[in-house]
Design brief:
Chain A is an all-alpha fold. Chain A has a domain at 32-63. Chain A has 3 helices and no strands. In chain A, helix 1 (11-24) packs antiparallel against helix 2 (30-40) and helix 2 runs antiparallel to helix 3 (49-65). Chain A is flat, with a radius of gyration of 19 Å. Mean pLDDT of chain A is 84; it is low at 1-5. With 825 residues, chain B is α/β, with parallel strands linked by helices. Chain B contains 23 helices and 16 strands. Chain B has helices spanning 43-53, 116-124, 133-142, 145-155, 159-179, 183-195, 205-217, 234-248, 252-265, 282-306, 313-322, 348-396, 402-417, 427-451, 456-524, 567-585, 603-616, 629-638, 667-675, 681-699, 716-729, 744-750, 770-784; strands spanning 5-13, 22-25, 31-35, 89-96, 99-106, 130-132, 267-270, 277-280, 531-534, 547-550, 591-595, 621-626, 644-653, 657-662, 797-798, 807-808. Chain B has a 6-stranded mixed β-sheet with strand order 6-11-12-3-13-14, sandwiched between helices. The longest helix of chain B is centred in the middle third of the chain and has 69 residues, at 456-524. The radius of gyration of chain B is 60 Å and the shape is elongated. The chains are: A mainly alpha (75), B alpha/beta (825). The interface between A and B is large, with 39 and 43 residues. Chain B: Residues 10-63 form the Rad50/SbcC-type AAA domain. Chain B: InterPro entries: P-loop_NTPase (IPR027417), Rad50/SbcC_AAA (IPR038729). Chain B: It comes from Aureimonas ureilytica.
């Protein structure tokens, strides 16, 4: 039997790499990817990680729905 | 890579079946096999491992303690431990390279902290190292694919990835729900209904516009008509202009305010019941008060004159008593001694009347004075009110009321001089106020008749509120739309993440699948259908499932094993998977504890499993407990003696714990115990049993097939009887042993246990002295000494089926067995 004793890649390392590749992917919503990376793609997520991520996504939707007015400064 | 961890020792004290301390030493032989009947304490050894490695200091099978069930952690301790003042403890020694670390864990009390060494070991156990036979089926048959996935993902150290997938699923659900949530819009509808007094209950652009035009703008000006509900609509712009103008002019509210201020000064009213006209207000109140005060002052002056002689008040009072009616009056004046008859009054009666008159005049004056004081207070109060009321109206009057304003200012100045100067006449000012009130009432009436309660300011405020609600609703819609897009993006990103995790998990599963099938095939034979470990299809939204599948037949591919495999095959699948996983992922501590794992297997499979352990797990530390003697013998036959320690529990002493006997007890071991002053009774018993079993095997005795409940456990009397029968058939008769009345085999056969036979009783040897033990051991050795090859003196025999008598097993001898003379070594 082939016994490969190479240590497994740690979940943390795998998730970090996964987060980076997700953000670098073409056409991906990077704001959303950042939220997922911050809250979900963690080896030891916060107990309320899902709630935090949801709040962040809802806030993002609100900001996109009502973007801050750009003030035009003359001169 | 660091040296792997192995157990160096395992000690149980007051734990489960073990009351007195028992230590298993793995320093010389790494692996251990324990044979014991059920209920004699073998599983307690595996329990000790589970306990010391457990996070919460208990055993899974103990469950939770409830009222009166004595379950839970309390069952960890031996039931007599407390009485015997023994602290229930499990201790381990662990070696890595040359470094030995020890640790122990209390098995009683609320706090049973895990020792550091156990925590270290746990970090090496990606896969739980303990496999219990009764739980094997669970994985294959009972567990759902989700549970299986969780287990395997944990074995593969992918627990966090399982959490990521679970969290992603939960997040997707919550975002989807949020995207479909209409609370914000419903809130707008509730507000809309309130603002429109239920005329429009839910948002409908046309209905809202119609409401604005019909019920807000039309009453003001039917020509004012919004084409769209927007601040840019020309009608809204016009409304804004008119509202501003209204705000700058005096509106209805302003007129009402002026009227209120004027009415505060003077107002003529009619009593509806009596039809009487009355006036009220600060001016008439002040006028009345001033008039009342003048009258009071006049009266007070008048009474004051009458009571000018108030200085004689004391005299009148004294005289009143002297000349009171019924009292003897003095004959002369008490003051001037003038005879009463000579005074102006001329008699006591006349004096009494005179005194009464003066006292009455004093009382009238006092009343008039009080009335004047009250009138003065009231006049001052009325004056204060009038002074404070006048600026209100003066301030509200615009240029169009200049005459009134001027008159009021003059009046105000005159009033301010009171009471030093007389109160001004109010008739003129009252007339002007009356005229103002009449004009105001007409204007208000005209406006109300024209627009009711509607004003442009109010109308604009209502339209603005509708615009706010419209804006809020649009924001809600846009947010929902954004959330919807984010929800779709989240689904896409979650799919990407899941696919990556899937790839990783599947790669690891593939790594596990091959060794698992190697083991499975070794147990079940080369023809066994391979087992596939498969995740759901990629397009399946729930990737957190693990399917165990087989291609059972051409028309039954990819089916669940539970429905097609036999009991032992299912056991084999689970056993192979667990053992392959341990082998693959527990490299840091290649330890396997197998508790009664062969109950489902027939003899051939048990032999195969023994062979499997020997050939594929030689580099692991294995602890096996079994109640199956045949499996135990297979293990002994196939496993290396230099690394394996075989022992058996020969009984469970409730006041001590399991009694062990190592499977191969040598004469030297027995001698060594006597030298140490210890009883060797159990060792003797074990040695005798081992010899009996060995010679029965060599001679090929016939044993009756046992009833099912004792399938593979030979009793000593059975073996003795079988050996006796074979010897009798072969006409072989052992010599009598000196000191033994009955032949050993015969005595066993008839159940008359005497002397020699006592070695073979089914319970541990009793109370004999070491001297007795030595005598009996000599008797046994004498008997045993007859079973040697008379030609070559070897002690291994065999009996081919065609022969009645055994022959020497040595290929160069093969002499037919005959009993040697007693005493031949």
């Amino acid at each position: 039997m082939d016994h490969e004793k190479k240590p497994l890649e740690t979940p943390d390392a795998f998730l970090n790499a996964l987060g980076d590749s997700l953000k670098a992917k073409d056409g991906v919503d990077t704001d959303l990817a950042s939220i997922l990376t911050t809250h979900i793609l963690k080896a030891a997520p916060a107990p309320n990680a899902v709630a935090q991520a949801k709040d962040a996504i809802v806030k993002l939707a609100s900001e996109r729905a009502d973007p801050p007015k750009v003030e035009v400064v003359n001169g | 890579m660091a040296d792997p961890y192995f157990f160096q020792s395992l000690g149980l004290t007051g734990f489960r079946a073990y009351l007195q301390p028992k230590t298993f030493d793995f320093s010389k032989k790494r692996c251990l096999a324990i044979f014991a009947p059920n209920g004699s304490g073998k599983s307690s050894v595996i329990d000790a491992l589970e306990f010391i490695l457990s996070k919460d200091g208990t055993l899974e099978r103990l469950g939770q303690r409830a009222i009166n069930n004595q379950a839970g952690p309390i069952a960890l301790a031996h039931n007599l431990a407390e009485e015997a003042k023994i602290v229930p403890t499990v201790a381990i020694g662990v070696i890595s390279g040359k470094e030995i670390t020890n640790g122990s864990r209390a098995a009683a009390g609320a706090k049973r902290p895990i020792p550091a060494v156990a925590t270290t070991l746990n970090t090496c156990f990606a896969v739980p190292p303990i496999i219990r036979g009764h739980a094997l089926r669970t994985f294959v048959e009972i567990h759902t694919p989700e549970q299986r996935y969780t287990d395997v993902a944990n074995w593969l150290q992918l627990g966090p990835l399982v959490d990521v997938q679970k969290n992603l699923r939960s997040l997707r659900t919550q975002i989807k729900t949020a995207a479909e949530d209409e609370t914000a819009l419903q809130r707008v509808d509730i507000q809309l209904a309130k603002e429109t007094t239920q005329a429009v209950k839910s948002w409908d652009a046309a209905a809202v516009l119609s409401y604005a035009n019909t019920l807000i703008l039309a009453p003001l000006d039917p020509a004012l008509f919004l084409v769209a509900l927007t601040a840019l609509d020309p009608a809204y712009v016009e409304l804004e202009t008119r509202a501003k103008a209204e705000d700058n002019k005096i509106g209805l509210a302003g007129l009402r305010q002026i009227r209120s201020a004027a009415a505060g000064l003077w107002l003529e009213t009619t009593d509806a019941d009596r039809g009487e006209i009355a006036v009220r207000g600060a001016v008439p109140t002040f006028d009345t008060a001033v008039t009342t005060l003048a009258t009071a002052e006049s009266k007070e002056a008048e009474e004051r004159d009458k009571a000018a002689g108030t200085v004689f008040q004391a005299l009148w009072k004294a005289a009143e008593q002297l000349f009171a009616e019924g009292v003897p009056a003095p004959d002369v004046c008490p003051v001037c001694i003038t005879p009463i008859t000579d005074t102006a009054a001329g008699s006591p009666e006349a004096i009494r009347d005179h005194v009464a008159k003066h006292l009455e005049e004093l009382a009238d004056y006092a009343a008039a004075k009080k009335t004047r004081d009250d009138a003065k207070t009231a006049a001052i109060k009325a004056h204060t009110q009038l002074v404070s009321s006048l600026p209100g109206l003066i301030g509200l009057l615009g240029d169009g009321e200049a005459a009134l304003k001027s008159a009021l200012v003059a009046y105000q100045a005159s009033i301010a001089g009171w009471p030093k100067s007389p109160a001004p006449a109010s008739a003129g000012i009252v007339a002007l106020i009356g005229k103002l009130l009449a004009a105001l009432d007409k204007s208000i009436s005209d406006i109300e008749a024209k627009q009711g309660e509607h004003t442009y300011l109010k109308a604009k405020s209502k339209i603005d509120r509708l615009l706010e609600l419209q804006s809020e609703r649009k924001l809600g819609l846009r947010t929902t739309e954004e959330l919807g897009m984010l929800s779709e993006a989240l689904t896409a990103q979650a799919a990407t993440i899941s696919a990556e995790i899937r790839k990783k998990v599947q790669a690891l599963l593939d790594k596990l699948q091959t060794p698992m099938n190697d083991i499975y095939k070794m147990i079940q034979g080369a023809g066994a259908k391979p087992i596939r470990l498969e995740l759901p299809r990629e397009d399946d939204s729930n990737q957190q499932r693990l399917n165990l599948l087989i291609d059972f037949a051409a028309n039954r591919t990819g089916v669940q094993p539970g429905g097609y495999l036999s009991d032992s095959q299912i056991h084999s699948v689970a056993l192979a998977l667990r053992m392959a996983a341990i082998k693959q992922f527990n490299a840091g501590a290649p330890i396997i504890a197998l508790d009664d794992i062969v109950t489902s297997y027939d003899a051939d499979h048990r032999r195969t499993i023994a062979g499997l352990i020997a050939t594929m797990f030689g580099d692991c530390q294995i602890l096996i407990t079994t109640h199956d003697e045949r499996f135990f013998n297979y293990l002994k036959d196939q496993l290396e003696a230099k690394t394996w320690h075989f022992t058996r529990i020969i009984g469970l002493d409730s006041a001590y714990g399991p009694r062990f006997a190592d499977h191969k007890v040598s004469d030297e071991m027995i001698e060594a115990r006597w030298v140490a002053g210890q009883s060797a009774a159990n060792e003797m018993r074990q040695a005798e049993e081992e010899w009996l079993l060995g010679i029965c095997r060599d001679f090929g005795v016939s044993v009756r097939i046992r009833p099912l409940e004792k399938a593979y456990s030979y009793e000593r009397s059975e073996l003795a009887a079988a050996l006796s029968g074979l010897l009798k058939d072969a006409k072989l008769e052992p010599s009598l042993v000196s000191g033994v009345n009955n032949r050993f085999l015969t005595s066993l056969g008839i159940g008359a246990i005497e002397n020699f036979g006592s070695h073979f009783q089914d319970i541990p040897y009793g109370e004999g002295s070491i001297g007795d033990e030595k005598a009996r051991w000599e008797e046994f050795k004498t008997f045993r000494s007859q079973f040697v090859c008379r030609k070559c003196s070897r002690t291994k025999f065999q009996r081919p089926l065609t022969m009645k008598k055994p022959v020497c097993a040595h290929s160069g001898c093969e002499a037919q067995f005959e009993f040697a003379a007693v005493g031949v070594p």
